[in-house]
Each structure stands twice: as structure tokens, then as C-alpha cells.
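User: Predict the complex.
Assistant: Input components as received:
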Amino acid sequence: MPLTGPIPEGRTFFCPHCGALYSVTYSRLSKSDSNIAKCVVCLQIMTSWDSTKVPIYKLVQRPDDA
Ligand SMILES: [Zn+2]
């Protein structure tokens, strides 16, 4: 049984801390100086990168216990 419904676009990513579901798209345009992504649910750093491809995380679903 699938855990989630249809994903709008991009790849899926689960926050390793709280399990929030994100869809990830990539952009070559960096909107900020930082190269880390913070979870908007648990506010912890989910991932970082060192690349010109900047991942953009869009929250799809909050974890059940949030
Ligand atoms: Zn989280």
C-alpha cells in the first residue's frame, strides 16, 4: 500500500528528522547565500549541497505526529 498520494512534481524527499514529505525541484538560480535546506516543520537542517544545482524543497505533507 502506498504511503503517499500523487506527487505534484519533482522528486520526493523525506525529512530525516521528522519525516515530513517534500517534493524537490532543482534550479540553477540561487536565491540565497546558504547551501543548506532547513525543514519548515522541525526546523532542523535536512541536507546541504555544494553545487550549482540548487534544490528547492516544497513541503507536501507534514508528518502525522507533528
Ligand atoms: Zn523535519
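Strands lie at 11-14, 21-27, 36-38, 45-48, 54-61.
Let me know if you want any component modeled separately.
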